[in-house]
Amino acid sequence: MNGPEEEELLEKMHVTGYPTLFFYREGLEPIKYTGGRMANEIAGWVEKKTGPPAVPLADAAAVKEFVDDAEVAVVGFFKDQDSKEAKAYLETVRDFEDYPCGITSDEEAFTAREAKDGEVRESFGKMKFLFLLFLFFSVGDSVQEV
Question: Is 93 found in the same domain as 46?
Answer without folding.
Answer: no
